Please model this.
Amino acid sequence: MLDWIWDNSGRIGDLSQAVGVCLTLFALGFAAGQIASGRVSQREATAKEVWRDYELLGLQHPDLALPDSGDCDADAEAFQGSREKFKKYRWYVSFMLLACEEILLCTRNREDWLSAIERQIRRHKDYIGSDFFRKSGHLKELHPVLRSMIDRHALSGGLNTP
Model:
């Protein structure tokens, strides 16, 4: 038996190197998969954190988060009849759009997030669809998916359609 091993030591050595290379390749593939999975998890966690911050802002300012029909008069630069409140509303919507953009970048347009974002766009379409907003230049700076949602909903009738 030892003679056979000795006689075939070169082949056995080659075989062990091949097995070692295969195991190394498998380990590299596994590590790459783990890294990719970690990145997806991190992007999802970031999206959830951004959304949570946006929801907290909405809880602090429910009148801005869920405007009633007629609350926003962008032509008069007034929200609920107040020019000062209109400034706050503009900042609220800007924060919303920034949060939506960050989420789109983090989640790569996942359908569940797209639906949540679309609901927010519909809630604020009186302002987002106004000439005031369009002339502000913000629209051209937004993510293309977000611009498409705005075009689709700001041009359709009705406010606060869930």
User: Anything to note?
Assistant: Residues 42-154 form one domain. The first helix runs from residue 2 to 7. The CA atoms of residues 75 and 132 lie 7 Å apart.
